[in-house]
Amino acid sequence: MKITIVQLGKIPENILTAITSELRETLNLITETTEPMEIPKEIYNSLRHQYPAPLVLKFLSERFRGKVLGITDKDLYAESLNFVFGQAYCPGNYAVVSIHRLDPTFYKQAPNEKILMERAVKEAVHEVGHMLGLDHCTISTCVMSFSNTVGDVDRKKKEFCQSCWKKILV
Fold first, then answer.
1. Torsion of CA 40, 115, 5, 74, to 10 degrees
2. CA-CA distances (angstroms) from residue 14 to 6, 87, 141?
């Protein structure tokens, strides 16, 4: 299966490389990466200073075919949530991950590329898992566990638990 990784904003090369490598190795996906593009300014919510994730997914679906994972540096939110690290159609062809709140500097911590990269990989695998039909998992270390905070992201692994892995293979 092939997945197109769409850069929405300024995404560090090492983040893109880590995500594409993990998707190739873990899920045996063929990846291609687009040139950077911007999310349309019209969907920006100036009251919240964020972009609504559902409209970013709609934007991706209007411009690309097949399996698509958007990676953005913009802050995202969804209905009734203050923010989201990502969102996907479950199952479906479109997902988006934001590295905005995965970056330690967002929390007034020292820059740390390694931590940012690990978090981005986990959330990318998580959202692709949703695209493949997986729901949230109750095992806190499974990559499919729900992340309400960056601490939740740090707690989980980048791998699927045995139960989730079996569902993908069906």
1. 0
2. 15, 22, 24
Is 127 one of the catalytic residues?
Answer: yes
* Both tokens assigned to 138: 């109750």
User: Which residue, among 62, 61, 122, has the nearest Cα to 95 in the 3D structure?
Assistant: 61
Is-above-0.90 flag for pTM?
Answer: yes
What are the structural domains, with CATH classification, of the chain? 2-135 (3.40.390.10)
> How wide is the angle at C-alpha 103 spanned by C-alphas 164 and 82, nearest 5°?
75
Per-residue pLDDT of the chain (170 residues; tens, 9 = 90+): 999 999 999 999 999 999 999 999 999 999 999 999 999 999 999 999 999 999 999 999 999 999 999 999 999 999 999 999 999 999 999 999 999 999 999 999 999 999 999 999 999 999 999 999 999 999 999 999 999 999 999 999 999 999 999 998 76
Q: Which of 32, 42, 123, 127 is catalytic?
A: 127
Query: By C-alpha distance, which of 127, 51, 63, 135 is closest to 96?
Result: 127
Q: CA-to-CA distance for 120 and 126, rounded, in angstroms?
A: 10
Sign of the CA dihedral 91, 4, 60, 6? positive
